[in-house]
Design a protein that fits this description.
By secondary structure, this protein is α/β, with parallel strands linked by helices. It contains 18 helices and seven strands. The longest helix is centred in the first third of the chain and has 36 residues.
Length: 503
């Protein structure tokens, strides 16, 4: 459904909504086009902008690397913590009251995808009678129901309760994870009422079908929820680090570098509170889920919408608590190298469709009364706008800005600013390449050991070379699909949810 049509009220309300849907793409295209125009009429403005933005890029890279290293150190520490032991010592009575429900919406995924995910939940140390599994397939894909029933039978003894349901797409709903979860979450609430389970005592995880949790994830979530003051427990999201590390050596090396950069970014933002958002795989109480009225069934990017709704509902009481465990999903793997890159392109384009949420943040947050202050909402709005703008131009300005300037206005080279600009940029970019060594080290630490056929000298050499090429890889596998999504949104070409081949 076109979200602008859903905007409450008159044609004016829909017009305003569309205006803010256009905003991200309009800003991005303005920055992309501006150097071509201003290089002729205001070359000094372009030169200073390139210089300032490149400095910003280098500083961001430094913070990114530093915080990723800090996050990695905490991750390693967590691997040696027995959270059940801590629960027994600090919350011996209360912790036993909590249930853990895993909600898995799926479409075309087969047993090969689901079994590792379910095995990981079984392996996570938490009382079996306190684990609830919800398998929600799509009615229009009846083979999913058969897979769900088979999985329910196989894992019946490993969960206290198993719910198998089938989501029927209703008018006004959009195909995808959000509509399926909206249905499944409401079914879970009704079942908990039947079982006499208090919603505030049920932790619910939004889990992709291919996402395997860490062994310590469930008790860690219960522990850190209980560490929060009681008033915040039903307004707190527990956020792990979702990754696509499974079968990483089977995908394109160009995709793998984007996977690692994404992992490091999500690790780094734990030390950058203003940048921390609800993302992909997350956990909250069923009571909190009820209070934000579950997931919206007519959107694609459900995670950022959950963040927005929670912020508006709870204001300063809304918390995101980092859980320093990697949750492993699968990268896209096509029929061949070209198909893999195309699938990754479409996947990034879908992620970048989160730019559509800027209109929701403005119209539902700034224009309506919420428990969040206008300052909080403005900070959240600015963070989202900056993220989508940077997504496209973060490589464009440092790599192409000076070339455009000197090509269109060679006279600037005769001025002091023009003579010094290439020297300063060269030094800044050289300083930034130092960070690549840390990225290479973290890749070896975070990624599983490659198989023998992917561990030859040639493969090792390419693993180093691809990091040097990473800014250029980022342009084609990240910036361009993001620009594509923003441009589609500008012209109201709605993006459909695509189910990728994970069979």
């Amino acid at each position: 459904m076109d979200s602008s049509k859903k905007a409450n009220g008159s044609k004016w309300a829909r017009f305003v909504y569309r205006l803010f849907e256009i905003l991200p793409g309009a800003l991005t295209w303005s920055v992309l086009i501006a150097p071509f125009i201003l290089s002729i009429f205001a070359p000094r403005v372009v030169a200073y902008f390139i210089l300032v933005y490149t400095c910003y890029w280098v500083v961001q890279s430094f913070l990114y690397v530093r915080n990723a290293v800090r996050g990695y150190a905490v991750m390693q520490k967590w691997l040696h913590i027995d959270w059940n032991d801590r629960l027994a010592q600090e919350f011996p009575d209360v912790s036993r009251e909590y249930y853990y429900a895993t909600l898995i919406p799926f479409a075309k995924e087969t047993e090969r995808v689901l079994v590792p995910t379910l095995d990981s939940i079984v392996a996570s140390r938490y009382p079996v009678d306190r684990k609830i599994l919800i398998l929600s397939s799509e009615a229009k894909l009846p083979e999913g129901k058969l897979v769900a029933k088979k999985m329910a039978e196989k894992y019946a003894k490993d969960f206290g309760k198993v719910i198998v349901i089938e989501h029927v797409l209703k008018e006004g709903e959009m195909v995808g994870k959000s509509s399926n979860e909206n249905f499944a979450g409401r079914v879970l609430l009704e079942r908990c009422k039947e079982w006499g389970i208090t919603p505030s005592k049920v932790l619910v995880t939004s889990n992709d079908a291919d996402m395997s949790i860490a062994k310590g994830y469930i008790p860690a979530c219960v522990y850190w929820l209980l560490k929060q003051p009681e008033k915040y427990r039903n307004s707190t999201v527990l956020q792990p680090i979702p990754t696509d590390h499974k079968n990483i050596w089977d995908t394109s090396p160009l995709v793998s570098i984007k996977v690692l950069l994404g992992t490091l970014w999500r690790t780094a933002v734990y030390f950058m509170p203003s940048m921390l958002t609800v993302y992909a795989n997350y956990t909250m109480t069923l009571e909190m889920l009820c209070q934000i009225d579950f997931w919206d069934p007519d959107i694609i990017q459900e995670d950022i919408r959950v963040h927005s709704k929670a912020l508006f509902k709870f204001g300063s009481d809304f918390k995101i608590v980092p859980i320093y465990y990697v949750i492993e999903g699968e990268p896209v793997i096509g029929k061949n190298a070209v198909d893999t890159l195309w699938l990754h392109y479409k996947q990034v384009r879908r992620w970048a469709w989160g730019a559509a949420e800027i209109a929701y943040i403005v119209t539902q947050g700034l224009f309506k009364k919420t428990k969040a202050s206008k300052f909080q909402i403005l900070v959240f709005l600015f963070m989202n706008i900056r993220a989508h703008l940077d997504w496209v131009i973060i490589s464009y300005v440092p790599l192409a800005g000076s070339t455009i300037l000197f090509t269109l206005n060679p006279q600037i080279k005769l001025e002091t600013l023009g003579r010094n600009l290439p020297v300063i940029l060269s030094r800044l970019l050289t300083a930034a390449t130092v960070f690549l060594f840390l990225f290479v080290l973290l890749e070896y630490k975070l990624f599983p050991t490659p198989p023998k056929n992917k561990n030859s000298f040639a493969h090792k050499a390419f693993r180093l070379i691809k990091w040097v090429l990473s800014p250029y890889i980022g342009v084609f596998l990240s910036s361009i699909p993001a620009l594509h999504a923003q441009t589609m949104l500008m012209f109201n070409k709605r993006l459909a949810y695509v189910v990728y081949r994970k069979e």
